[in-house]
Amino acid sequence: MRIRLCVIAALLSVGCGAASAADYTVGAIKIAQPWVRETPKGAKVGGGYMTITNTGTASDRLVGGATPAAGRFEIHLMSMDGGVMKMRQLENGIEIKPGETVELKPSGLHVMLMDLRQPLAKGAEIKGTLRFEKAGSVDVVFPVQAMGAGAPSKGHAGH
Q1: For the segment 119-158, what is each residue's pLDDT rounded down to a tens digit?
Q2: Interior CA angle at 48 toward 75 and 50, to 5°?
Q3: Is 14 within 8 Å of 91 (Cβ atoms)?
Q4: How many other CB atoms are there within 10 angstroms of residue 146's CB atom?
Q5: What radius of gyration, in Å, describes the C-alpha atoms of the chain?
Q6: What are the sequence ranges of the domains in the chain?
């Protein structure tokens, strides 16, 4: 009986999101749960996601970033146009108005890691820097989630 309880407890903890991303703050900007998706062998691009909240009284803008894992860090938008999925770079970044929360997620706003130096492997962590127009730069860690994964959970409290 005790062994069964231990196995059940272990399965529940895995199911509740063993990988949990951290939150970061720079000035009035709060970054919640940055993460990237695992990439297949040979892929040269990867996607990064997070939630950004502006707690200040003035607009700010995510204007770029960098990571040693990729040659370029770009901000992109995916959208549907006449039944066709289109993606374009947002050269002016993403505005975050006062009190606003912007979610970067698959099939929407996201960061593109271009010219990957190696595949992004599930369970790894990718260090990076986000650059905001007013708040400045902040170092973050992007946990690598499985291909097809959604945002990481916040552990048991998030369920």
Answers
A1: 999 999 999 999 999 999 999 999 999 887 666 665 433 3
A2: 95
A3: no
A4: 11
A5: 17
A6: 21-149
Contact at 8 Å (CB) between 34 and 25? no
User: Secondary structure of 52-114 in the HEC alphabet?
Assistant: EEECCCCCEEEEEEECCCEEEEEEEEEEEECCEEEEEECCCCEEECCCCEEEECCCCEEEEEE
Q: Tens digit of pLDDT for each residue in 51-101? A: 999 999 999 999 999 999 999 999 999 888 888 888 899 999 999 999 999
Three-class SS of residue 9?
helix
Of 78, 64, 57, the C-alpha closest to 131 is 64
Give the CATH architecture of domain 21-149. Answer: Sandwich (2.60)
Q: Measured between alpha carbons, how far is 109 from 99 in angstroms, rounded to an integer?
A: 18
Q: Among 148, 150, 54, which Cα is nearest to 96's?
A: 54
- Cα–Cα distance list, 43 to 69, 76, 107, 137, 148 (Å): 12, 18, 18, 28, 15
